[in-house]
Design brief:
Elements (H helix, E strand, L loop, with lengths): L3 H6 L7 E4 L3 E5 L7 E7 L17 H12 L6 E4 L3 H4 L8 E5 L9
Antiparallel strand pairs: 1-2, 2-3, 3-5, 4-5
Bound molecules: adenosine monophosphate (AMP).
Adenosine monophosphate binds next to loops.
Length: 110
Protein backbone atom coordinates (compact mmCIF):
# COMPACT_ATOMS: atom_id res chain seq x y z
CA UNK A 1 0.00 0.00 0.00
CA UNK A 2 1.36 3.38 -0.99
CA UNK A 3 1.71 5.84 1.87
CA UNK A 4 -0.24 9.09 1.91
CA UNK A 5 2.94 10.92 0.97
CA UNK A 6 3.66 8.56 -1.93
CA UNK A 7 0.17 9.36 -3.20
CA UNK A 8 1.06 13.07 -3.03
CA UNK A 9 4.36 12.36 -4.80
CA UNK A 10 2.42 10.49 -7.52
CA UNK A 11 -0.10 13.36 -7.78
CA UNK A 12 -2.96 11.08 -6.71
CA UNK A 13 -3.70 13.49 -3.83
CA UNK A 14 -3.34 17.27 -4.27
CA UNK A 15 -0.88 19.28 -2.24
CA UNK A 16 0.68 22.73 -2.26
CA UNK A 17 4.04 21.65 -3.66
CA UNK A 18 6.91 24.08 -3.15
CA UNK A 19 9.90 22.01 -4.31
CA UNK A 20 10.65 18.87 -6.26
CA UNK A 21 13.71 17.12 -7.59
CA UNK A 22 14.63 13.50 -8.40
CA UNK A 23 14.93 12.57 -4.72
CA UNK A 24 12.63 14.81 -2.72
CA UNK A 25 9.19 16.42 -2.74
CA UNK A 26 8.32 19.31 -0.41
CA UNK A 27 4.81 20.66 0.18
CA UNK A 28 2.96 22.80 2.71
CA UNK A 29 1.51 21.00 5.70
CA UNK A 30 -2.29 20.81 5.54
CA UNK A 31 -2.51 21.77 9.25
CA UNK A 32 0.29 24.31 9.68
CA UNK A 33 1.52 25.02 13.20
CA UNK A 34 3.31 28.21 12.15
CA UNK A 35 3.21 30.71 9.26
CA UNK A 36 5.68 28.47 7.41
CA UNK A 37 5.22 24.73 7.77
CA UNK A 38 6.66 22.60 4.98
CA UNK A 39 7.11 18.82 4.85
CA UNK A 40 10.22 17.57 3.07
CA UNK A 41 9.73 13.97 1.97
CA UNK A 42 12.15 11.54 0.30
CA UNK A 43 10.57 9.90 -2.72
CA UNK A 44 11.86 6.56 -1.47
CA UNK A 45 9.38 5.01 0.97
CA UNK A 46 11.31 4.84 4.24
CA UNK A 47 8.97 4.46 7.21
CA UNK A 48 10.98 6.66 9.54
CA UNK A 49 14.30 7.27 11.26
CA UNK A 50 14.06 3.88 13.01
CA UNK A 51 14.30 2.10 9.66
CA UNK A 52 16.73 4.48 8.00
CA UNK A 53 19.25 2.53 5.88
CA UNK A 54 22.90 2.57 7.05
CA UNK A 55 23.95 4.17 3.81
CA UNK A 56 22.28 6.73 1.61
CA UNK A 57 22.42 10.44 1.30
CA UNK A 58 19.75 11.37 3.80
CA UNK A 59 21.59 14.48 4.84
CA UNK A 60 20.21 15.73 1.56
CA UNK A 61 16.89 16.38 3.36
CA UNK A 62 18.76 18.95 5.45
CA UNK A 63 20.22 20.58 2.36
CA UNK A 64 16.71 20.98 0.93
CA UNK A 65 15.48 22.35 4.28
CA UNK A 66 18.24 24.97 4.23
CA UNK A 67 17.36 25.96 0.67
CA UNK A 68 13.64 26.26 1.44
CA UNK A 69 14.27 28.18 4.67
CA UNK A 70 16.24 30.70 2.64
CA UNK A 71 13.51 30.88 0.00
CA UNK A 72 10.84 31.39 2.66
CA UNK A 73 12.84 34.23 4.20
CA UNK A 74 13.38 32.52 7.56
CA UNK A 75 16.59 34.45 8.25
CA UNK A 76 15.77 34.79 11.97
CA UNK A 77 15.66 31.03 12.46
CA UNK A 78 13.38 28.05 12.20
CA UNK A 79 12.86 24.58 13.57
CA UNK A 80 13.41 21.21 11.89
CA UNK A 81 11.51 18.25 13.35
CA UNK A 82 11.35 14.55 12.60
CA UNK A 83 8.76 12.65 14.62
CA UNK A 84 9.47 8.92 15.04
CA UNK A 85 6.90 6.36 16.08
CA UNK A 86 3.92 6.59 18.36
CA UNK A 87 5.58 8.34 21.29
CA UNK A 88 7.38 10.66 18.92
CA UNK A 89 4.05 11.80 17.52
CA UNK A 90 4.52 10.38 14.03
CA UNK A 91 1.22 10.04 12.17
CA UNK A 92 2.39 9.28 8.62
CA UNK A 93 4.77 6.29 8.30
CA UNK A 94 6.88 7.82 5.55
CA UNK A 95 10.02 9.67 6.63
CA UNK A 96 9.55 13.45 6.54
CA UNK A 97 11.25 16.52 7.88
CA UNK A 98 9.06 19.37 9.16
CA UNK A 99 10.41 22.85 8.37
CA UNK A 100 8.61 25.21 10.74
CA UNK A 101 9.14 28.95 11.02
CA UNK A 102 7.80 32.46 10.89
CA UNK A 103 7.18 32.77 14.61
CA UNK A 104 9.18 32.42 17.84
CA UNK A 105 9.40 28.77 18.89
CA UNK A 106 9.10 27.57 22.45
CA UNK A 107 10.95 24.77 24.24
CA UNK A 108 10.35 22.07 25.34
CA UNK A 109 8.00 20.83 22.62
CA UNK A 110 4.74 19.25 23.70
P1 LIG B 1 3.86 13.54 11.57
O1 LIG B 1 2.76 13.69 12.58
O2 LIG B 1 5.21 13.94 12.03
O3 LIG B 1 3.83 12.15 10.96
O4 LIG B 1 3.52 14.58 10.41
C1 LIG B 1 2.54 14.34 9.46
C2 LIG B 1 2.08 15.68 8.96
O5 LIG B 1 1.38 15.48 7.75
C3 LIG B 1 1.12 16.40 9.89
O6 LIG B 1 1.68 17.64 10.30
C4 LIG B 1 -0.14 16.59 9.04
O7 LIG B 1 -0.77 17.83 9.26
C5 LIG B 1 0.42 16.47 7.64
N1 LIG B 1 -0.52 16.04 6.63
C6 LIG B 1 -1.41 15.03 6.70
N2 LIG B 1 -2.08 14.90 5.55
C7 LIG B 1 -1.61 15.86 4.72
C8 LIG B 1 -1.92 16.26 3.38
N3 LIG B 1 -2.85 15.64 2.66
N4 LIG B 1 -1.24 17.31 2.86
C9 LIG B 1 -0.30 17.95 3.58
N5 LIG B 1 0.03 17.62 4.84
C10 LIG B 1 -0.62 16.59 5.41
Amino acid sequence: MATLFTKIINREIPADIVYEDDHVLAFRDIQPVAPVHILIVPKTEIAGVATLPESGDHQYLLNVAKLLAEREGLSNGYRLVINQGEEGGQSVPHLHLHLIGGRKMTWPPG
